[in-house]
Amino acid sequence: IITAGGKYYWDFFDFNLPLAFYLTSGSGLLAKIFLINPIIALEIFSNLVGIFTIYFSARILRSSEIYKDITLFNILILSFACGFFLRVFTLQFNEFGTKSTYFLAFAYTYISYHLIAENRLKTFDQVLIGFLAALIFCLKPHYGILVIAFEVKKLLEKKSLKAGFCLRNYITFSLLLAYLLLLFTAFPEYLQL
User: Fold this and answer.
1) How far apart (Å, rounded) are the C-alpha atoms in residues 176 and 173?
2) How far apart are the first and last CA of the chain?
3) How far apart are CA 96 and CA 102, in angstroms?
4) CA 92 from centroid of its chain's CA atoms
5) pLDDT tens track for 39-73
6) Is 8 helix (H, G, I), strand (E, B) or coil?
7) What are the tens digits of pLDDT across the range 3-43?
């Protein structure tokens, strides 16, 4: 509906925030380009999201101490793969392409970054962590519990509130503010519910 020019809350209705719909519209675009069934395109798209998530998580984890223990590294990557592709009822109810698919994609990458010692993270990594945290919140605000848990852990480790004033959190708050402004301007119908 979105790729055909449909408008959120005018042409279709849902209580969830619009980010997941716009992420999923990529599969609709693939269906149009390659002239395939939209359901098949969604399956291909969701599986590609999972494959890229596992790939990038593995690349990120190679910079961590976990990589020194190859057994632990392999177990973690296998756990990510099983968690993404073998979720309960995913195949039975066609749950690929939903908010949980994108949550897992963002969360696995986010968790992978947090398993690296903070002093080994580059500025680009900090920006990506902030971006991933914002995307997690933007899918559904209660998904942000994961982000909050990791940030509280960092605060407790450093025993200082100053640890919370860092680039990744500035990026997260900036993107959340931008998303909120986008909701007010582009989707006022959502906020009227």
Assistant:
1) 5
2) 21
3) 9
4) 23
5) 888 888 888 999 999 999 999 999 899 999 999 99
6) strand
7) 566 665 566 556 667 787 778 888 888 888 999 988 888 88
Q: 91 Cβ partners below 8 Å, 6+ apart?
A: none
pLDDT tens digits along 84-126: 988 776 666 666 667 888 999 999 999 999 999 888 899 999 9
Q: Are the beta carbons of 110 and 148 closer than 8 angstroms? A: no
Closest CA to 150 of 137, 58, 140: 137
Instruction: Identify the residue whose tokens are 């004033």.
Output: 165
Residue 9: helix, strand or coil by DSSP? coil
Burial 3-14 (b: 16+ CB within 10 A, else e): eeeeebeeeeee
Closest C-alpha among 7, 6, 9 to residue 191: 9
Amino acid type, 177: L
Q: Closest by alpha carbon to 124, among 73, 163, 167?
A: 167
